[in-house]
Amino acid sequence: MVTETATVRGLLIAGKQEQAAGGKTFDTVNPATGEVIAQVAKAGREDVDRAVRAARQAFDEGPWPWTAASERGRVLLRTAALIRERAEELAQLEMRNGGKTISDARDEVLGAASCFEYYAGACTRIMGETIPVSAPGLDMTLRQPVGVCVQIVPWNFPIVMAAWKMAPALAAGCTTILKPAGQTPLTALVLGELLYQAGIPEGVVNILPGPGSTTGDALIHHPLIDKIAFTGSTEVGQTVMHAAADGIKRVSLELGGKSPSIVFGDVDIESVVDQSVYSVFANAGQDCCARSRFLVDEEIVEPFTAALVERVRRLRVGDPADESTEIGPLISSDQRERVEGYLELGQHEGAQLACGGTRPQDPDLARGFFLEPAVLTDVHNDMRVAQEEIFGPVVAVIPFRDEEEAIRLANDSAYGLSGSLWTRDIGRAVRVMQRVRTGVLGVNSIRSVFIEAPFGGFKMSGIGRELGMKALDLYTEVKNVYIACEL
What we know:
Layout lengths: L7 E2 L1 E3 L2 E3 L6 E5 L6 E6 L3 H16 L8 H17 L1 H12 L3 H21 L7 E2 L5 E9 L2 E5 L5 H15 L2 E5 L6 H13 L6 E3 L4 H9 L6 E5 L2 H12 L4 E5 L5 E4 L5 H13 L11 E5 L3 H13 L19 H17 L2 E4 L18 E4 L6 H4 L6 E7 L2 H9 L3 E2 L3 E3 L3 H10 L6 E2 L14 E2 L2 E2 L7 H4 L1 E9 L3
Parallel strand pairs: 1-5, 8-9, 8-11, 9-10, 11-12, 13-14, 13-19, 14-17, 16-17, 19-20
Antiparallel strand pairs: 2-3, 4-5, 6-7, 7-23, 12-22, 15-16, 18-21
């Protein structure tokens, strides 16, 4: 088992654990206790340059881009097997580093393994096509790896997001430099080690923990990279797009959300409420897909809100290691204060705090960054709490009059990532799901993200699609080749 230790966790550059060139480290903290669980090397510009050059050499001169697709698949499959062998160890580490409930952490570790398994199978399905052209000869397309990829992942789903980024890039034959979030670097470092154990060649995978403002900035501006893949806030995504313009680097962005859950009056209220609470409050609301706006038919808004408040009050906030815990802590003290600030702002704007929003009274939780899940009522869609991503355990209940207003309110957002739609009327479901401008949508379900299906957003929620076979488009270039019949 991984044990809590003061030992400095090194950077992973070209398959070797190394300390930062400048000797700097940073603490990583258990959000449930506020205690330091490890020190981690902080990558500086010199470290970034070494890692990028290692990845560049591995791509330009190494075997990985030209390794048989079936062999690349076998390496990814061995990686998945190693993740599964160490699943409980990784889940415990993810729980301590990210504050996740142990049940969620286990699911996410297994989800990372499944992701590598999926792209192991995808390696031999990266195909081109033949095209009839006007000249005599043969015209065909090839799908070739895009090159050296910088991949920056957030702290809310550390090992899953690392798998989502790395597995398709490696399947395509790219080389990678992964920068995990400063708060949650530990499982990413272990994942890098497992990839080398599985047979990844030297330099193909590099892991560089450090702050976005320094490590991330040096990575996205490095002239030797070909592609930037970023998951995080929309504001930082804009910075990434500006950086990508220098050198016309390829870029994909998975950004923020303010997703609606549209509830029509013909539903079973108790059933919808019971499912929907997890679409908001799982992972303490720290999810870009969180359905943080409940748009509810005004005919049922009162009984729906009463049932929602009663259900939210029963959610168990507590120690993530306790199997019965449903809601763990927020990632940091700063994040909790940010959420509390939004709750104050919402009430100042005229919303009512129907429940939650306070720190638990349990003395055993006092050192952690816990917050009781909150429901805001009397919310109008133009309020900041209905428009801005809070990224915490807060939901706003907003009534609508009819189908047209429900669609208008759902689309009245800068974001367009995810959402849910609840109705027994199949015709209404088809009409509404087509007009709601989100990249993914669950009808009569809180689920909308699957490894096998494309994931991404409209509008300011991002560019490109991760997961499924579509993710391979992010990591390949299309080359057209014409072969003449004769000289």
